[in-house]
Amino acid sequence: MFTKILVANRGEIALRVIRACRELGIRTVAVYSEADRNALHVRFADESVCVGPAQALKSYLNIPNVVAAAEITGVDAVHPGYGFLAENIAFASSLESHGITFIGPRSETLATFGDKLSAKAAARAAGVPLLPGSGGSIDDVEEAVELAGQIGYPVMLKAAFGGGGKGMRVVHDAAGLRRAFELTSAEAEAAFGNGALFLERFLATPRHIEIQIAGDGKGGALHLGERDCSMQRRHQKIIEEAPAAGLSPELRGRIRQAAVQLAEHTEYLTVGTCEFLVEGDEFWFLEVNPRIQVEHPVTEQVTGVDLVQLQIRLAAGEPLPMTQDEVQLKGHSIEVRVNAEDPWTFMPSPGPITGYHAPGGPGIRIDSAVHEGAMVQPYYDSLVAKLVVTAEDRAAAIRRLSWALDEFVVEGIRTTLPLQRALVRDAAFQELRFHTRYVDEWLGRRND
After folding, report:
1. pLDDT class for 161, splitting at 50, 70, 90?
2. What value, to the nearest 5°, has the Cα angle with vertex 332 and ends 416 and 210?
3. 156 - beta bridge partners?
4. 207, 291, 394, 437: which is the annotated catalytic residue?
5. What is the CATH number of the domain that holds 19?
6. What is the domain range of residue 85?
7. Does the structure show a pLDDT above 90 at 187?
8. CA–CA separation, 164 vs 438, rounded Å?
9. What is the pTM of this model?
10. Is residue 178 annotated as part of the catalytic site, yes or no?
11. Contact 290/274 with Cβ under 8 angstroms?
12. Which end of the chain is more exposed for a tag (fewer CB within 10 A), N or C?
């Protein structure tokens, strides 16, 4: 087992990793920007190193500085959390070349799943269902128009190296495809450094179901159930839950098995998430996120498995600590991401928190790194806190979540809490009548 781990992140996920390390008896090193000098993750780590000024590119994303911090503090391993350098091949390779363990997949696995086209190729080889599409990048617009005619409109135009909802457009006819092609490619080039695009069939009302996987890097893998992440705004998740309600046992089993097949086929090492689109009784591969997910707490709540500790143990070369039959799900858990944004326009709302009260009581978990007097920085992700509730079933979890949202107070900045209070009480959410574009449609009706 490792003796010291550097946490290459900030905010609530940095605190989450530090706490997991404490339980394992591992010392921790925090890195921080000048803006985060007084942040909680710096205060609670055993050691800390400043890696640059406030801008993420000059600090948390500065690979030479972060690797240097790992070297001078003599750590055995680096945990990247999510975001920032969590899926950066150059970072993982640099650590490996310095004899420091990257707590995540191997570099070749990051390369496979960092490119949506190579990820789809791996899924195809593992026998996982794929949406009809181009199967590879498309070089020119006329090729795209011809293929879209074969698939049938509407189609989704996507950036091969995209993520976070960027570089994606739905097109309904050839004229729209011609207009969107160059624009989407330019957007992808600006956001991801690569303008490659591909096409696939567009689904009107899919659910977004993701399977939590874990692999030992030797072909052994298992799943820890699924999460429903369909409550999204412009492809950004805002409410997640586990397990996914309303799936037939047969469909649930097929989706879980497909994720395990892909993990086994790629000899996947560490924890990760295999994501699918589901419509009716069919499902199709979307992507793999080869890291810990923001929404991992709901899986921890219903399985009793500490996923961050599992990550660390697998990176240290330990075997999977359980068999598939030993993974048991109990109860229902829902997570709400509280972001520092206007709840209706989603404009960022950084600034000082002048008042803060988190809900408490049985079945309530708060993952956060803020407090009264804390500063929500304008330089980073807007996540303030994750409110996670767990109860014996979905109906009870929704009731608990409803009053917990009312009890959550964040003053001094605007947050998404008013939107989430309304969505949780909406009949469509309570009755499972939602899909990945439901929130956008709901907001559209509200603003009419």
Report:
1. confident
2. 75
3. 170, 200
4. 291
5. 3.40.50.20
6. 4-103
7. no
8. 17
9. 0.94
10. no
11. no
12. C
